[in-house]
Amino acid sequence: MPPKRAKARADSLESGDDSEEYRKKRARNNMAVRKSRVKSKMKTQETMNRVNELKRENTILEEKVKTLTKELGFLKELFLAHASSTSNEAKFQNFDLEKILSDDPSTHTDHKPC
Amino acid sequence: MPPKRAKARADSLESGDDSEEYRKKRARNNMAVRKSRVKSKMKTQETMNRVNELKRENTILEEKVKTLTKELGFLKELFLAHASSTSNEAKFQNFDLEKILSDDPSTHTDHKPC
DNA sequence: CTACATTGCGCAATGC
DNA sequence: TGCATTGCGCAATGTA
Question: Where are the bilayer-spanning segments (chains A, B) (predicted)?
Fold first, then answer.
């Protein structure tokens, strides 16, 4: 149901009126509206800042993964090289070397390679 | 300078007027305003979605770093254990083992440990 | 019912 | 000249 304009004094307040009470009410609402809009804009701004923070953290983490992966790969090669140049692999029998050396870290999660 | 209300026909258009031209202009602006606001809200929504995407990616990367760090630590221990149980460390002299084994990945970047 | 908060909407100024 | 963007007030509606 649309408004109820110009009911003169039907209600004690509301539309199309310039009573003191009405103006006071309008003034308070206008303040509330301004306040609410400022708040809303700040929230939007914070969300955009959050995106930037997260992008930054993400870049750092990706670099870290890259470095760790490289190091791990290097150590694995070292292991394999050593294993093929010696005959007593038995020294490592207490560890599940097979598993570790065949364990590709890039398959630990299902996300895209970076 | 505040508006220029009720200049009757001073301008060919503008405020406080109900000429056909004026109404057409208002109608077009109202459309533009609605359109602009829809666009604005969509952008805000997209930004929020972006935050969620980034948080998700971040979590995955952190898990990956955790796993890689653990693996690397294990391989290092293996190396050290082997090194202390054998006398011919010379086999690894072609690599900068000292550096690798003392290279703590957690110091590669300046962010907090995870 | 009272009071503030949020939201859709139109107006006008201003940006492009 | 015209659409796009923005601050603002009104009224309806939501919330406490």
Answer: none
Taking alpha carbons only, the member of A32, A54, A99, A53 closest to residue B57 is A54
Query: Which residues, 6+ apart, have CB-to-CB distance to B20 below 8 Å?
Result: none
Task: Indicate yes or no: CB of A57 within 8 angstroms of CB of B60.
Answer: no
Q: Are B75 and B81 in contact (CB under 8 A)?
A: no
B6's CB contacts (< 8 A; 6+ apart) are B15, B16
Global confidence as pTM: 0.68
pLDDT tens for A23-77 read 999 999 999 999 999 999 999 999 999 999 999 999 999 999 999 999 998 888 8
Residues B78/A107, Cβ–Cβ less than 8 Å? no
Distance CA A40, CA A36 (A): 6
Closest Cβ–Cβ partner in B51, B61, B92 for A65: B61
Position A10: which residue type? A
